[in-house]
Specification:
Number of helices: 7
CATH architecture of the largest domain: 3-Layer(aba) Sandwich
Distance between the termini: 60 Å
CATH superfamily of the largest domain: Rhodanese-like domain
């Protein structure tokens, strides 16, 4: 019965349904392109190790000290534009941007790509995913 009502609604309001689907697909495409590609933690490890890349942790100092990836550079998001010169030697290398959940890293990755870091990408899931996978962290 419910399925019949849904199908009847779709048939009668096909233009609204088409507009909704178009809008949702455009939103999905926009969000997926906003920061370029995302690497899983395992892909990120492989990129950094095989191509002399770097993990860039953009979380605040307190979060960074609680636990971070070994050898990660720490540049808080608020300081990134002023400290981008510290990353110059990684301009042609993978720069894996890490935040808490992977959301803040999107904006930082976009900023890095605009500054010529063509291989910058965010780490999907951020440190939360890293810790869920029980990968090693260093704390201060």
């Amino acid at each position: 019965m419910q399925l019949d009502l849904l199908l009847a609604f779709i048939a009668e309001q096909w233009l609204l349904v088409a507009a909704l689907l178009t809008t949702l697909s455009m939103l999905f495409v926009h969000e997926s392109r906003k920061a370029g590609p995302a690497a899983s933690p395992q892909q990120a490890i492989n990129l950094v190790n095989s191509e002399a890349g770097v993990f860039l942790d953009i979380r605040d100092g307190k979060e960074f000290k609680k636990g971070h990836i070994a050898d990660a550079l720490h540049i808080p998001l608020a300081s990134l534009s002023g400290r981008m010169g510290e990353l110059d030697k990684y301009k042609d290398k993978p720069v894996i941007v890490v935040c808490k959940l992977g959301q803040s890293a999107a904006g930082a990755t976009k900023q890095l790509r605009a500054a010529g870091f063509s291989r910058a990408q965010k780490m999907a899931g951020g440190m939360t995913e890293w810790q869920t996978m029980k990968l090693p962290v260093v704390s201060e």
